[in-house]
Design a protein that fits this description.
Blueprint lengths: L3 H8 L17 E4 L2 E7 L2 E2 L2 E2 L11 H23 L5 E12 L7 H16 L6 E7 L8 E9 L1
Parallel strand pairs: 5-6
Antiparallel strand pairs: 1-2, 2-7, 3-4, 5-7
Length: 154
């Protein structure tokens, strides 16, 4: 039975996907004490990888924001897999967003707002977080965005 946070997410029209398996030699999350570290999530949708492209090279800001939002949905799916119930989330501490972008693209924070806005919408005040938004020359599978997170958990 879904907890209150998951029920709220469903009212937003979102059903959390099954947490994706790692694509290399790492684990999807690690809990140590009351902290949960979730490995970087890419924009994996129901049909596979979505949002491949480079911001500043024909890939639109709005598409980057959609990619970041999908990454955030996948972060919550991993957190649910780790915790069993998202109601164990005390707060989202920090996210780091990586944006596949050209050297002259400077709107990485606007792109990562796609993740931040969704996480605050989904978690309320528990979703307000510190963050970094970083431009990179490339990301796995050519995706536009990757986002990782640190949660405080009960």
């Amino acid at each position: 039975m879904p907890g209150q946070i998951e029920k709220h997410i469903e009212t937003l029209g979102i059903t959390l996907p099954k947490a994706a398996a790692p694509a290399a030699n790492y684990v999807p999350y690690v809990q140590t004490g009351n902290q949960l570290f979730v490995s970087g999530q890419i924009p994996m949708g129901p049909a596979g990888i979505e949002h491949q492209g480079k911001l500043g090279d024909g890939y639109a800001l709005e598409d980057g924001q959609a990619a970041a939002r999908l990454c955030a949905i996948n972060l919550l799916a991993q957190a649910k897999a780790a915790l069993g119930d998202l109601d164990r989330v005390v707060r989202l501490v920090k996210i780091v967003g990586f944006v596949n972008s050209t050297p002259d693209f400077t709107d990485q924070p606007k792109v990562i707002n796609g993740a931040s806005d969704f996480l605050v919408e989904a978690l309320g005040d528990k979703g307000r977080h510190a963050r970094s938004a970083v431009g990179v020359a490339g990301l796995p599978f050519g995706v536009a965005v990757e986002v990782e997170a640190i949660f405080e958990v009960a």
